[in-house]
């Protein structure tokens, strides 16, 4: 998707994974002895760009003749592809959780950070999310990567609370995880907590999500090879390494 804060996104697109490759990651984790109870379809890119294979993978994973994992234990994370979210909503899968990478409260800033916003601006995205089927007391998860001096001010928090005021949401705040030679900076803990507190006072359900693996460039937004992928073998090794670090995060 070309998001400026995502090192993984700078690798470029090779191809989409097949249904077998998506489901196979869960099988591989089980074979290794991991007790997989919850799945997050995150991709190294955009799961809903691989829509048909993603949908079939969910069906196989849920089926009792497959891996027998209930939809209520699955979450799909998206950069906000409105047409595909609407298609997903039409399936009526109220159990499948939806997470949206938001990262800015206005179109100007979000388009700078996330090029996808130029095609699906916030007005259309918020309207789309308002129609997404949820179970009783269900919430849409909004992911907000906090970048020092870019989207972490009190004014940004106020604008965010106003933007989501009509939606049943939970906001996940994620401090930016810097990579090598990075122009963006991680906010201080004090700024992170101040942003959180600002949302709380405005009745927004919010949590700070801690990152793991920052020291080995394995945290959110950092997963990327040190050199371009040139062969299927190299690609497979990277997927295996990613699986071992984040066995419940399913690439699409």
Give a structural overview.
- This protein has helices at 19-31, 51-62, 82-90, 107-113, 122-130, 154-163, 189-201, 232-245, and strands spanning 39-41, 74-78, 97-101, 140-146, 169-175, 206-209, 249-250.
- It has a seven-stranded parallel β-sheet with strand order 6-5-4-3-2-1-7.
- It has a single domain (8-250), classed as Alpha-Beta Barrel (TIM Barrel).
- The protein is globular and about 50 Å long.
- The model is unreliable at 227-247 (pLDDT under 50).
- Helix content is 35%, strand content 13%.
- What letter string, H or E per element, gives the SSE order? HEHEHEHHEHEHEHE
Domain count: 1
CATH architecture: Alpha-Beta Barrel
Radius of gyration: 18 Å
Given helix and strand content, the structural type is alpha/beta
The major β-sheet equals: 7 strands, parallel
Task: Report mean pLDDT, rounded to a whole number.
Answer: 88
Indicate the low-confidence ranges by residue numbers.
Answer: 227-247
Examine the coordinates and then state which fold CATH places here, giving the name of the CATH topology: TIM Barrel
Shape: globular
Strand content: 5-15%
Counting H and I runs of at least 4 residues, what is the number of helices? 8
Helix content: 25-40%
Q: Spell out the CATH superfamily.
A: Aldolase class I
């Amino acid at each position: 998707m070309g998001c400026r804060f995502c090192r993984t996104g700078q690798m470029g697109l090779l191809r989409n994974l097949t249904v077998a490759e998506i489901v196979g990651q869960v099988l591989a984790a089980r074979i290794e002895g991991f007790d997989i109870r919850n799945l997050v379809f995150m991709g190294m890119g955009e799961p809903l760009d691989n829509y048909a294979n993603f949908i079939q993978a969910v069906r196989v994973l849920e089926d009792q003749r497959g891996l027998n994992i209930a939809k209520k234990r699955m979450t799909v994370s998206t950069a906000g592809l409105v047409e595909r979210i609407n298609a997903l909503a039409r399936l009526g899968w109220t159990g499948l959780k939806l997470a949206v990478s938001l990262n800015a409260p206005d179109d100007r800033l979000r388009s700078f950070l996330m090029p996808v916003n130029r095609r699906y601006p916030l007005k259309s995205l918020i309207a789309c999310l308002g129609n997404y089927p949820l179970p009783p007391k269900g919430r849409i998860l909004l992911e907000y990567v906090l970048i020092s001096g870019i989207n972490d001010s009190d004014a940004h928090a106020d604008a965010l609370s106003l933007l989501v005021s009509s939606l049943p949401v939970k906001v996940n705040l994620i401090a930016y995880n810097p990579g090598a030679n990075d122009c963006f900076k991680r906010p201080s803990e004090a700024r992170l907590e101040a942003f959180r507190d600002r949302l709380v006072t405005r009745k927004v359900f919010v949590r700070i999500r801690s990152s793991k693996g920052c020291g080995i460039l394995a945290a959110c937004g950092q997963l990327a090879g040190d050199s371009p992928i040139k062969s299927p073998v190299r690609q497979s090794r990277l997927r295996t390494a990613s699986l071992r670090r984040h066995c419940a995060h399913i690439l699409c």
